[in-house]
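Data card: per-record layout.
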Amino acid sequence: MYMTETNNYAPNMGNQGAEGAEDTKEDMNTDENISGFTHLNEMGANEEELDSLREELQQQKDKYLRLFAEFDNFRKRSARENMELRQTAGKEVIISLLDVLDDCDRAERQLQAASNIDQVREGVQLVFSKLRSAMLAKGLKAMQSIHTDFDVEKHEAITEVPVQDPSLKGKVIDEIQKGYYLNDKLIRHAKVVVGK
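The structure for this 196-residue chain is written out next.
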């Protein structure tokens, strides 16, 4: 009996399995709501989408090439402007010193023809004053070092000399070469003699 039930059951399962497979096969291959040409319509839509993507890609390539060319032009223009700036960086200072150079030429002619040394001395002092004021107008300022504490950030010690006065120890007692600031930035250290 057990065998019979199993045999009866098995063929039924087989039939149900076959019917289920046929239903699935039928579902996969046919659908009464889909026409037979729909997949061709979808292919046409895909072609249109592909064409649109190609066009968009071409536009992006064009934009990229234009941007690249524009950047290359900017880079070349910047390099050219930078070169011009380097070549004319000191132009403003040189122009301001031309008047002083003219005064030096006049002073030199006066030295050759002058008999009064006091007039020559006065003329040379005027040239020096004009030079200092022109440099001061451009932001150059001399460092005051004498009788100040020695500072390695500002001074370069040439030598140390013994001093009698204890208040001068560690201070600058003489200046061999002046230090200078340009717009409050140190551009040359002062060469000094320090007391010990």
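Known properties of this structure: Confidence is low (pLDDT under 50) at residues 1-15. The CA atoms of residues 64 and 70 lie 10 Å apart.

See the next section for split statistics.
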